[in-house]
Amino acid sequence: MVEYLPCEGAMRLFIVSLWIASKHSSRRLLCLLCVFLVLVGLGGLAFTLWSQREPEKAVVAVVNQDRNPLSRQALDWLTKSGSIQGLEGILELRFFDVGEEPEEKDLYTAVVTIPDGFLESVLNGTNLSPRLEVDISSPLEAMWVESIAQAGARWLTNAQLGVYTVQEKVDYGRGMDPQSYDLLLAGINLTYLRAFLDRLDPLTIQQISASGGLSLPAYYLLASIVLLLYAYGFLFQPTCADLQKFSQVSGKRWMPFFANAVHVYLLNLGLCVLGVLISSHLLELPVESVGTLFGLAFLVGGMILLLTVAFQSYTSCAAACLLSALGMGACGGGFLPLPLMPLVFERIAPFLPFWQGMRLLGQVFGEPGQPLWQPLGMGLLLWTLAAVLWCKRRGALWTIFSGC
Amino acid sequence: MDYFFRVLKAHMVHMFRSAAFWVTTLCFLLLVLVMGIALPQGSQQMSLEVGVLPEGEWGEQVEELLLSEEDFRYRRYHERSTLERDILTGALHCGYLLEEGKVTALVTSASYLRPLIDELIFTAAMEVDAPGIAQKFLQDSLQPADGIPETFRNLSQTEPSMEIEVIERGGAPLERFSQGGLQPLLYAVLVTAFLAASALTELLSPVQHQRALCQLAVLGERRIGTLLGIAGGNLLLNGGILLVAGGLTDLLLQTSIYPWKARWILLGSLAGFSVLLSLGITFFRRFYSVLIALLPLWCFCSVLFSGALIDPARLPYGLGTLRFLSPSWYGLQILQQFL
Predict the structure, then answer these.
(1) CA end-to-end distance (rounded Å), chain B
(2) Which of A12, A53, B17, B60 has its CA 20 to 30 A from that of A188?
(3) What CA–CA distances, in Å, run from B183 to A47, A253, B252, B255, B332?
(4) Distance between CA A314 and CA B123 in Å, rounded?
(5) Does B321 lie at the interface with A, CB-CB under 8 angstroms?
């Protein structure tokens, strides 16, 4: 039989229930905080090690046997002018002059030998072939070196053909002033040299990432916050069960429910704020939208309240929270970013509270989000279901584990 | 012997009637299915394929030259979204949008060969542009500039080109690529998930059932027989579940880097270990709230210290020794014995 208290009595009941419930749950939530800090610590160490993995460089010996002094100057200029600076991440060049040889060829991925008279052969068009010895026991590095060498050879060939084309078109200077012809040749050579030096000017590099605007560590940190909030929702279950028993015994239906609901919401809001502060500090990300935290707490609180009301036993509630959180995480991009998963998961994800929660948390840090009605509508549905189950006194699902 | 089979049968009947057993089993098999479907396929960690998306005639000409090359494999794309997806999933090393006057390289943090591929792309671009450079120069110098492309082409066939004399040395090429891609991670997660599911099943099992078995063992003075009956029942059940899981992974993985013997030995060992774990949880059941609270942390650490993501031996502060507490680490060690 339901008794209707005067407003003052009802408010007092609400406040006392809220206070007691918050006190009990917050002690248990310290466990969640400790787990989160351990995960962040270990995850941070793992990402530090991950980023330290560097690809192996190919070490190349360049043996210049060309006695022409201009040849040495040309090589010096080539390496110091910055025209091959971009390759320093994968190639390491070591130079040997006339009469010098690398001590042990096995230490090098490749040995390039520039023959005597090479520069002169380039200028007169006979094109002596440089020798490239590659170590095929390092197939990847050997392939890099060979590719670069072949690319260099093709550049030189095309530039030479361009110069010959100009020479042919002006009939090799017949009918031209010798000085003008020399200037013309110098001009076309400089033009192709300029083209070589400026070859990368049209290049624009665009970094793409499966984790959107967030770095991978940031993505997984935010995913772990949302996942842990859902997974550890069972920590609210004992308080919820106690309030339910009190509600049954006292006949007061709604005040204990509202106290339960508000305590779940407020504590989740506190956890969200804490998570955002820690993330902001660790990742040095600015917080751009604080308002979405209220939406996140609303969504997460709804799911937690539903599960804690549905399952009367602590163990069964824990199993439900863990399995649902892991399942949502697996399908919603918690373990692998959605762009890396088959398209069907991108269609399923928006229906999962985990994915909606992640998007809300991303919006806090300025990530583009989705219309707020989606997570709020989902949250409202969850809160409503929780209220309906509460009214029925027993959740439909708890009877499955009634033996626990 | 009779008693053993009776206990085994009773335990198995109880498990088949238990909703907790079916829920955890289904969740585990679903996880296997989801991971098997979602896992980016590929046996190499680094792809050597490059995607190109030409725009305009210039882009088409450059693309044609690239497709005829042998060192890197180039793949043509018609849509940017498909190109980006293949780069993100690792099917491509990187991609290029080829437009005259503007070349955009689409890269991820793993595209460390991008500077090399840039050179190859722009070498092909130079081949397309070289006649045009000569033509423009002649025009600017007020010299006759007609028929330049034909002259250029004729000369390319008559004049000697620069060739590189390539000599290979060294023994048989060693396999330098990292093997398996994400497959070690898949098996690390499966081992962890299965053990977590076994633990949950045990924790969700009714207390009354445990007490009944204890009473049977004590009153009948058949402790060992009861224990063996329960263990036998769990072994059969877990073995069956792992059989299904193993079949699912074989079906979903296009190519497995681990031989079938290695995989089935792992699953057999896992079945045995899960029985020991279940028995252990039975004895520590009174700490169920602590066990459940630590379960997610244990799952994370088990996968982290397995060696599938990072080498745990390199972790500082002696944390690397924690890998000896990770069942996934032992699982991957078993698999790697057969490589």
Answers:
(1) 41
(2) B60
(3) 20, 52, 12, 10, 10
(4) 67
(5) no
**Residue count (chain B):** 339
Residue A248: count of CB within 10 angstroms of its CB: 13
Q: Which helix (H) or strand (E) holds A250?
A: helix A237-250
* CB atoms A340 and B152 under 8 Å: no
CB contact under 8 A, B163 and A153: yes
> What's the token pair of residue B60?
């088409």
Q: Identify residue B189 by its one-letter amino acid code.
A: V
Tell me the C-alpha distance between A377 and A384, whole Å.
Answer: 11
Give B104-147 pLDDT, tens digit per residue. Answer: 999 988 888 888 899 999 999 999 999 999 999 999 999 888 89
Residue segments in chain A with a per-residue pLDDT below the cut of 70: 1-6, 50-56, 81-85, 393-404
> What's the mean per-residue pLDDT of chain B?
85
CA distance A119 to A121: 5
- Which of A48, A165, A313 to probe the B interface (max B CBs under 10 A)? A165
pTM as predicted: 0.76
Which residue from A134, A184, A331 is facing B34, i.e. has the nearest CB? A331
**CA–CA separation, A69 vs A49, rounded Å?**
47
Where in A65-202 does DSSP place strands (E)? 91-96, 110-114, 131-135
Query: Hey, which residues does A13 pair with through a beta bridge?
Result: none
In angstroms, the CA B187 to CA A315 distance is 27
CB–CB of A346/A359 below 8 Å? no
> Which of A148, A149, A300 has the alpha carbon at shortest distance from A233?
A300
Q: How far apart are CA A247 and CA A241, in angstroms?
A: 10
